[in-house]
Amino acid sequence: MPRMMQKLRAAGCRDDAVGLVLPTGYSFNLDGASIYLSIGTLFIAQAIGVDLSLGQQITVVLVLMLTSKGMAGVPGSAFLALSATASALGVIPAAAVALLLGVDRIMDSMRVATNLLGNCVAVFAVSRWEGALDRVTAKRVLNGEQPAQPTEPTRTADTVQPSATTQPAEAVQSPHDT
């Protein structure tokens, strides 16, 4: 998260928008998990031959949107949430969730990528909405013309330039010289 915060700041988003939206999104904006859970439920229902009515589908989606909020930062929790939701609603047998067990580890990385992308888009949207987005810098970074990672200047003895206010050592007089 700290590297993503640095990259968003370097991409033109103001510090206060990045500091509020990104950490909040990690807890509440779990788009990838919600999408996975909804599609996984529909896949399981089709695989075992259960026809869900529109009302059941909407109920499943709403319940899964709520249960996805409690799984931030817990690996494998989406699978457990899907099992718990399936058994609680009774629309599909809880044992049928095992159909997704083989692909859950691969899908976990896709959920993380989707969640991260959603959180970054949210930072850009809130920054623009609040007038806290440097649109020129953002355009340059998103077009690949400028790196998103802020570069630190390298300082060696050869590259350090004296400032205009510094004086050479022989020009500085001590009070005892007069």
TrEMBL record:
Main location: membrane
Topology relative to the membrane: Multi-pass membrane protein
Presence of the UniProt keyword Membrane in the record: yes
Keywords per UniProt: Membrane, Symport, Transmembrane, Transmembrane helix, Transport
Pfam families assigned: SDF (PF00375)
Subcellular location: Membrane
Database matches in Gene3D superfamilies: Sodium:dicarboxylate symporter
Domain of life: Bacteria
Record-linked SUPFAM superfamilies: Proton glutamate symport protein (SSF118215)
Region of interest (Disordered), residue spans: 141-178
Transmembrane segments: 35-66, 78-101
Chain intervals with Polar residues compositional bias: 146-168
Stated name of the protein: C4-dicarboxylate transport protein
